[in-house]
Structures are given as structure tokens and as C-alpha cells.
Give the backbone structure.
Amino acid sequence: MAAIEPSGDGPTALDEAVSSRMTTLSSEAKVQLFRSLFRGREDVFARRWENRRTGKAGYSPACADEWDPVLCGKGRVRGSTRKANCAECCEHSFFRVTDEEIEKHLKGFQVMGVYPLLVDETCWFLAADFDDGAWQDDAASFR
């Protein structure tokens, strides 16, 4: 977790406090903290991918059937040159958000993305990105 660094001179006191506190937490406590901060859908999460040949990267639903030649629709659509996408797939078997998957993310073995909009169209958090020289004014006006 990185804090905002207004001076650009390196870690802030907040960075150091968070880092110190995080090293004393158990793995289970870190997973629960993550769950409390990034609460979203439990039935699916996104996994980051990168094509090393093209450099293209993105996120897709984490699926147990991904690239299975029989089940996965990411291959060619029958009778077409077009590729299917995950939304068109009838055979998906999405991985659920489990403590084990979160721990893999926290240890750097995978990059997870959260689907914040729940099935009932509610959301538990909001993310905002403030950039450039006026980020402090923008953040203050956001309240």
C-alpha cells in the first residue's frame, strides 16, 4: 500500500508506519485487511495477463477452463475467423475469491482485479485518481 508522496523525495512517514505495521500482521490478518478494503464480488475476480510478444496487457475473469481447447471460447468461434470473448462463453468456470487466491496476490504470484459492482448493483468502495500538479486541489474539491 503506497501513500501519496507530495514532495517526491521518497517514502513518507505514513509509508514507513504502514510498512512497519504490515510486517507484524499474520498472513490471515493481511488477507482480512485486503478483503475489508477491496470488497467486491465473491463469485469471480479478474486476473492480469500480458502478451510478451505484443506487449499488450489487460484483465480477464479468472477461469478454470481458460484456453481449454474444448471448453474455452477464446479460441476461434466455429465457422468464423472471429475470436470469442469471456462474456460470450457458456462454459466458464470462474474462480471464486478465496483467502488462498488473495494470499497469492499479496505474495506477488498473481495480480488480481476486483469486480466492485455487486450483482445487486451496489458497491462498497470508490477509487479516484488525482494526477498532475493540481492533484491536491482536485482532491480537496472531491469531498
